[in-house]
């Protein structure tokens, strides 16, 4: 039951080329930065990533993207990653964009063993009818477009069929965790992390604080250890290394207020 690994490098050593990978985080909040950088050092390529977004230039999944290690992304937000836009528009990267709530439910459904579900999100758009550019050709034409999806009426309202997502591996970040893999997420880091962890067949979690079994009260556990196979304890420096995607100063204060 001791799922702790000696290092991030050890925890991601067996992720192969072409693996599917669910990654937690939203923007730069709750991103498993240490595991991502360990995977970069490990060298796996041709990865198919499922994540809300693909980091930013030089941080998070943006590190793998800039190195040409990611072949496909399923996400809901492009953000301000210039490298992502360049690779997508030039045909180097295949991208499946999906509504944010749908992406969250697809991950949760996959982790819960639900193969598919119906949702009203996307009805009447190319999400349902197909034609969204998944991959461009070098000349700017659409090389691969999304297929149409099955729709069905429930109580007189149309819904579109979406499939649950499971991946070979998942990388997530938690505030606290124990050696059995039980995890607690803090504030905005409780975004896609629990859902990504559920979807991975092998889930690796980096934790800011590692406690012994019994150190977490049952009613504060957000994700039970059954979903987690490997734990990496961060150093104090690694735990404190948190970046803000965009900083703005409040005009109401002469000193300014930092917001993310």
From TrEMBL:
<protein>
    <submittedName>
        <fullName>CoA transferase subunit A</fullName>
    </submittedName>
</protein>
<dbReference type="GO" id="GO:0016740">
    <property type="term" value="F:transferase activity"/>
</dbReference>
<keyword id="KW-0808">Transferase</keyword>
<dbReference type="InterPro" id="IPR012792">
    <property type="entry name" value="3-oxoacid_CoA-transf_A"/>
</dbReference>
<dbReference type="Pfam" id="PF01144">
    <property type="entry name" value="CoA_trans"/>
</dbReference>
<dbReference type="InterPro" id="IPR004165">
    <property type="entry name" value="CoA_trans_fam_I"/>
</dbReference>
<dbReference type="InterPro" id="IPR037171">
    <property type="entry name" value="NagB/RpiA_transferase-like"/>
</dbReference>
<dbReference type="InterPro" id="IPR004163">
    <property type="entry name" value="CoA_transf_BS"/>
</dbReference>
<comment type="similarity">
    <text>Belongs to the 3-oxoacid CoA-transferase subunit A family.</text>
</comment>
């Amino acid at each position: 039951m001791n799922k702790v690994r000696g290092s991030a490098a050890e925890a991601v050593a067996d992720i192969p080329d072409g693996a599917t990978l669910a990654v937690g985080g939203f923007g730069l909040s709750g991103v498993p930065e240490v595991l991502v950088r360990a995977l970069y050092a490990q060298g796996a390529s041709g990865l198919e990533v499922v994540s809300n977004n693909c980091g930013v230039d030089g941080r998070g999944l943006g590190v793998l993207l800039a190195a040409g290690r990611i072949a496909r992304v399923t996400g809901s937000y492009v953000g301000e990653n210039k490298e992502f836009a360049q690779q997508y528009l030039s045909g180097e990267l295949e991208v499946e964009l999906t509504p944010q709530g749908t992406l969250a439910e697809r991950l949760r459904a996959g982790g819960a063993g639900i193969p598919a579900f119906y949702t009203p999100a996307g009805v009447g758009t190319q999400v349902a009818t197909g034609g969204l550019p998944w991959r461009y050709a070098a000349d700017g034409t659409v090389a691969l477009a999304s297929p149409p999806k099955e729709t069905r009426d429930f109580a007189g309202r149309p819904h579109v069929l979406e499939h649950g997502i499971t991946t070979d591996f998942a990388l997530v970040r938690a505030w606290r965790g124990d050696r059995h893999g039980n995890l607690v997420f803090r504030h905005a880091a409780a975004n896609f992390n629990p859902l990504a962890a559920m979807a991975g067949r092998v889930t690796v979690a980096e934790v800011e604080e590692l406690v012994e079994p019994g150190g977490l009260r049952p009613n504060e556990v957000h994700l039970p250890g059954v979903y987690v196979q490997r734990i990496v304890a961060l150093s104090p420096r690694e735990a404190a290394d948190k970046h803000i995607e965009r900083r703005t100063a409040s005009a109401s204060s002469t000193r300014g207020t930092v917001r993310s």
